[in-house]
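testing teh design pipeline on a random one, pls ignore if ur not involved
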């Protein structure tokens, strides 16, 4: 009884167990082929970093974490990157040797690193030769990339992408000058040409460049900074590595350059590595602005930050303050990109082609193999796209495209984000572009900034000092109110000043300036225009405005604008005295010959008409005296009246009466004589018209005839001439062979008039040399007495002066 129920139960149980076992075996069988089918291919990659340095440590830890994250998510991938790490020991040669060793002995498919741009240069060339891609997440110098270096990939942005952000800040505050301070190596110099271009575009001058050696002592840095204190520029752009940069700022603080009125802007070379600098260094950075790459917040990023910190502290227990920064993210994303690209090549043969002539090879370089997969790998890398921790990851021309820069202001122990810069919209307060149109460089788009020296107002751009000459005469050009002192602003008037102000207002940006009179402390004119130009050259004034002639000699010292008014040097002479006008002036229009000829023709025509008419016309008959009289009277009337009866009939009754009466008797009848009369009338017409014209011009022009028409006349007679006191063309006048004793000077137009009145014989002058604008105002006053004469000497015109 007992057995019966148990047997089926037992059987059932056994069956169940067997079923279960067989099921579980089935499950295992299903799993097994999956696991055994994947035999992973190890792929060697190298890494060359300064493992003593922050970026090296950070890069290594992030890269390793990236690989383990990547393969735990993509366990089905056939390839596995195997990292071979070499320490470059912060040395260019060390980095080069490490790279060569990795390629030769380990046959790495790609090299990550090196850390900085200086080490990168040689390694990139080695990579190009061996066809091994070099992927750097921290070498940012723009000079590294080139189309001749297809094996270089920059898993970061090049430095030149931020220069527009810096120039936008400078433009926002209207500063006119900036001095770049940069480290003297590949990293420092790479960005400088781009910075210059960007600043030039917005018309910011770079009066000076401050280059600091990577191995400079504190003393040398101090000397360099002392030089900066003597310059007028107050805006500095620092492009350095954080170590040298924080030393520089410490010394700048001591020298007094981090104080009110100064502006310091750091490139991302320092700002990106903020956390590393630690809080102790913040003291000398108060009020400094910085530009850095912006990483949008994301959940993945936050969780990675926490995981990374835990892991990093395990490995480096001493670095408690370490914070993940953007170089870590770039390293992390670069690892993903490389792993993805290598997986695309999983069917490839990962060995190296042996160099051709191994036997004779003496150096490492000659015996370098060539990676068979190089070309395929760079293609795979170029086409790799994904959303990385730092944002979109995609190589464009072998480097990442920058998106947004953040602008920060150092305050207290931290930094305050005051705005963003994007290439499309310029400066923006928030990254919400819905309402934005166009590129903005408005100051309003930046948050409040605390400037160095705890100042809350933005350091102003320097007001330009414009020197103006003081003239007692010709104030039409520059009129300075009398009694001006040299150190206070003046409000000059006049044409030159009007032009200057109009030009300044038309500038695309605001320029602030003040006018200063070029006078001594007691308000006296202290020099010539050359002296004023010397003062611009010596830096007392930034520019000079006035009726300043553009001359070759002056342009050796200063810069001129284009001329705003033409000016020539001309000779001014008195007008010939015309008071004893010739009573016979009416004879002058025609020469004696012509008078005689006219008289002869007059008689001749009378004779011809008489010959032709006296037989047929009653009028030409009678006693001989009457005949002679009629003929001459006839020729004379043709001189005065036209021979057209209808014209006479149409004119006023009185005229026609007189004329008709006088002409009643001698009407020509023969056609021949009519022909003669027509010709005679024509000759008469020309004669009378030219007589009238000549007489008119004689009577008017004669009034304005100069006493002297030529310089040679003056030289021949040894007359005196005058030039304005301090005018530049004294030398030129002497070149015309005037004896220096014959060259006098005048300071006012009244003095000039007096000299002219005296006359050369009495110590006065016969002529003066002046510039046309002055001549015009002189003749305005004395137009009845003087005129210009002789040659016109072309000059450059009047321009404004700046250094
Ligand atoms: C086996 O691998 C394939 C892809 O290679 C995957 O789709 C499948 O889920 C795996 N099976 C198991 C049981 O893991
Ligand atoms: C791994 O995959 C999971 C699920 O697809 C995803 O949520 C996670 O972000 C991935 N991790 C990494 C590091 O990509
Ligand atoms: C640097 O990056 C910018 C932005 O991506 C790019 O336009 C420029 O061509 C790059 N310069 C060099 C030298 O690669
Ligand atoms: C890979 O290439 C090397 C040299 O070309 C050759 O010796 C080797 O047999 C290849 N291996 C495979 C698996 O094809
Ligand atoms: C952007 O601004 C618009 C209004 O201008 C607002 O409607 C929108 O929600 C904002 N977007 C974000 C992401 O803040
Ligand atoms: C966007 O523009 C609209 C219309 O000009 C305006 O009403 C709105 O306030 C703006 N929004 C923001 C956030 O500036
Ligand atoms: C040339 O110009 C300079 C600057 O104004 C001046 O100091 C110098 O005397 C001039 N030389 C001559 C020969 O005019
Ligand atoms: C012209 O002659 C008159 C009288 O002869 C004299 O009074 C006058 O001063 C002279 N003018 C000049 C410019 O010589
Ligand atoms: C012009 O020069 C004379 C001496 O040469 C001097 O007495 C006079 O004050 C000067 N006039 C002006 C306006 O400078």
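output:
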């Amino acid at each position: 009884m007992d057995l019966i129920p148990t047997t089926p139960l037992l059987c059932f149980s056994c069956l169940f167990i067997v079923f279960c076992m067989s099921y579980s075996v089935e499950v295992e069988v299903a799993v097994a082929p999956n696991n055994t089918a994947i035999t992973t291919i190890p792929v060697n990659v190298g890494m060359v970093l300064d493992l003593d340095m922050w970026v090296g440590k950070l890069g290594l830890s992030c890269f390793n974490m990236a690989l383990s994250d990547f393969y735990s998510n993509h366990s089905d991938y056939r390839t596995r990157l195997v990292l071979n790490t070499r320490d470059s020991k912060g040395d260019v040669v060390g980095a080069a040797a490490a790279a060569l060793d990795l390629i030769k002995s380990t046959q790495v498919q790609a090299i990550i690193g090196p850390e900085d741009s200086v080490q990168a240069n040689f390694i990139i060339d080695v990579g190009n030769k061996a066809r091994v891609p070099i992927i750097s997440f921290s070498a940012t110098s723009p000079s590294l990339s080139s189309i001749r270096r297809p094996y270089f990939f920059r898993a970061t942005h090049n430095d030149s992408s931020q220069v527009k952000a810096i120039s936008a800040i400078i433009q926002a505050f209207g500063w006119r000058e900036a001095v770049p301070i940069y480290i003297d190596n590949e990293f420092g110099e790479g960005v400088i040409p781009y910075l210059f271009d960007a600043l030039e575009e917005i018309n910011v001058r770079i009066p000076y460049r401050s280059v600091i050696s990577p191995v400079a002592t504190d003393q040398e840095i101090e000397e360099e900074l002392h030089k900066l204190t003597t310059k007028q520029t107050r805006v500095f752009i620092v492009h350095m590595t954080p170590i040298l940069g924080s030393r520089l700022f410490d010394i700048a603080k001591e020298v007094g350059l981090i104080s009110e009125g100064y502006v310091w802007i750091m490139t991302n070379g320092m700002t990106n590595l903020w956390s590393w600098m630690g809080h102790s260094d913040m003291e000398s950075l108060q009020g400094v602005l910085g530009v850095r790459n912006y990483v949008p917040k994301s959940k993945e990023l936050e969780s990675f930050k926490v995981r990374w910190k835990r892991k990093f502290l395990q490995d480096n227990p001493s670095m408690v303050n370490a914070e993940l920064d953007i170089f870590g993210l770039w390293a992390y994303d670069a690892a993903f990109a490389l792993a993805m690209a290598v997986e695309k090549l999983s069917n490839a043969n990962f060995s190296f082609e042996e160099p051709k002539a191994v036997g004779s090879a003496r150096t490492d370089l000659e015996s370098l193999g060539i990676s068979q997969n190089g070309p395929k790998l760079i293609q795979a890398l170029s086409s790799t796209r994904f959303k990385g921790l730092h944002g979109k990851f995609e190589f464009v021309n072998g480097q990442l495209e920058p998106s947004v820069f953040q602008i920060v202001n150092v305050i207290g122990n931290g930094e305050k984000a005051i705005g963003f810069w994007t290439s499309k919209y310029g400066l923006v307060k928030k990254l919400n572009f819905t309402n934005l149109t166009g590129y903005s460089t408005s100051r309003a788009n930046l948050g409040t900034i605390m400037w160095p020296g705890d100042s809350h107002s933005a350091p102003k751009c320097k007001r330009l000092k414009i020197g103006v000459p003081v003239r007692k005469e010709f104030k039409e050009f520059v009129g300075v109110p009398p009694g001006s002192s040299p150190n206070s602003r003046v409000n000059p008037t006049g044409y030159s000043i009007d032009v200057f102000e109009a030009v300044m207002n038309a500038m695309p940006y605001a320029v602030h300036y003040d006018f200063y009179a070029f006078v001594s402390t007691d308000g006296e004119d202290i020099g010539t225009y050359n002296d004023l130009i010397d003062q611009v050259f010596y830096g007392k004034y930034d520019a000079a405005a006035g009726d300043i002639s553009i001359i070759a000699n002056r342009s050796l010292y200063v810069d001129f604008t284009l001329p705003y008014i033409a000016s020539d040097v001309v000779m001014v002479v008195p007008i010939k005295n015309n008071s004893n006008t010739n009573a016979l002036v009416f004879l002058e229009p025609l020469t004696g010959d012509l008078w005689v000829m006219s008289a002869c023709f007059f008689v001749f025509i009378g004779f011809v008409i008489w010959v032709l008419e006296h037989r047929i016309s009653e009028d030409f008959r009678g006693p001989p005296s009457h005949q002679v009289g009629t003929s001459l009277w006839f020729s004379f009337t043709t001189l005065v009246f036209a021979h057209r009866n209808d014209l006479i009939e149409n004119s006023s009754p009185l005229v026609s009466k007189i004329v008709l009466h006088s002409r009643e008797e001698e009407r020509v009848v023969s056609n021949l004589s009519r022909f003669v009369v027509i010709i005679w009338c024509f000759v008469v017409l020309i004669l009378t018209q030219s007589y009238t014209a000549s007489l008119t011009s004689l009577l008017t022009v004669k009034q304005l005839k100069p006493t002297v028409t030529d310089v040679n006349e003056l030289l021949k007679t040894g007359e005196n001439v005058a030039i304005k006191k301090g005018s530049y063309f004294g030398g030129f006048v002497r070149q015309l062979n005037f004896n220096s004793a014959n060259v006098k000077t005048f300071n006012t137009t009244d003095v000039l008039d007096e000299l002219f009145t005296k006359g050369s014989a009495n110590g006065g002058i016969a002529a003066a040399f002046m510039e046309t604008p002055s001549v015009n105002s002189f003749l305005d006053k004395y137009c009845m007495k003087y005129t210009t004469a002789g040659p016109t000497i072309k000059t450059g015109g009047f321009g404004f002066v700046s250094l």
